[in-house]
């Protein structure tokens, strides 16, 4: 019999999700509004603290799109974005007809390099194009260099959209990720730290921004008995069914973060004895990562194999692993309509990095299977 597939990150239900979904059925709140939507928003606000307001939406991508609209991004504007990220961080820039300015990573957190960021801003300003917004990402749950990035943003008076899609449960200097930007974004897609099957949220300290996001996400209906619209609207609100799953997931969020961190420790332990392989780790005690995905870098000259050889060895054993996000400035879709500032840090990370199975629901047996592939490769 073939072993069942081990995923990088798969949905992990806590047990109470279905109660909330059943309640929605019993009360006939089968709609993109209702008690679960309000309850899930409240749960997230209580969890994130910092006096934030949360608006539950249909996806993280929708949250980024509405975030850019609310921060004033229009056709012809320039928007700065971390190059090494999932394409959903950058696609909404294109929805707005704006131009992405991609920025290289730094080596400690793999996120946006504050030095390259400042270079880019200075250069764009010198060309008469001051960027409208900076999209910074906490990749794999690892907080970006919050102080450094926000200092640069403040210095040049540029708004920050914080893509915290991968970082619910992470914090920096004891403040939760998602609460640093002018607007923060969360995702509850199936592979994220918690899931609503599909969903996202906008996070903000400004109640008017939340109200505006909800207004735009529900077709921008003006206050009138008939359907009256003075702005272009979207159908981006979260379903009350999905929000029910989210409420159950919030009950196990911290437990699942602890399990992801345990999985990360497993890899740190293992690779501490393997020359040429390093695990992405928190640079100091200021950083706390949910370790949504554990990721390694392989120095082929020392380790004697490439990340691709390891990936294929996993694949042969029905275990999923994946190269790091391919930087956006190298993606065909952005080739002719974007700019790039930086060196080759993100490119080198992409060439040598691999994400490993990291789910909070991996069993001891599955960890054994992962271990036996690693041993076959590294301890032969
Ligand atoms: C998943 C993800 C998104 C998009 O979220 P969806 O809910 O899938 O639309 C955006 N940015 C990053 C970094 C992500 O990982």
TrEMBL record:
Residue ranges of coiled coil: none
UniProt keywords, alphabetically: Aminotransferase, Pyridoxal phosphate, Transferase
Any Pfam family: DegT_DnrJ_EryC1
Record has Transferase as a keyword: yes
GO MF terms, alphabetically ordered: transaminase activity
CDD domains assigned to the protein according to its UniProt record, in alphabetical order: AHBA_syn
Family: Belongs to the DegT/DnrJ/EryC1 family.
Protein's recorded name: DegT/DnrJ/EryC1/StrS family aminotransferase
